[in-house]
Input
Amino acid sequence: VQLQASGGGLVQPGGSLGLSCVASGFTMDYYTVAWFRQALGKERQFVAAYRGFDRNYAESVKGRFTISRDNAANTVNLQMNSLKPEDTAVYYCASKKGRLILSAAWTPGSYDSWGQGTLVTVSS
Output
């Protein structure tokens, strides 16, 4: 099981960026797949998750970020719009077989596979 995250970069406040998480060794539609982020000096924080047919978001990104899944490409994407400086962090994708309950999906320790992280910097 391997996850490869990509798409990070530097963007101005109010801008948009799309992240991709490509899975190999397993089929994503049987897994919970999530995005987390970790800002410098802070704990890893839940961003969004795909659990079965349900999509869940942290309050801080609701209405701005959209998680989507491309089963044919075995990829989960995160479209980030209206970016703010406080969105600056390293973004990680993670997976766990099965459909996690919501409280578990928010918790980094619930996942057993992680991508390598991609840096998103929101700055003017």
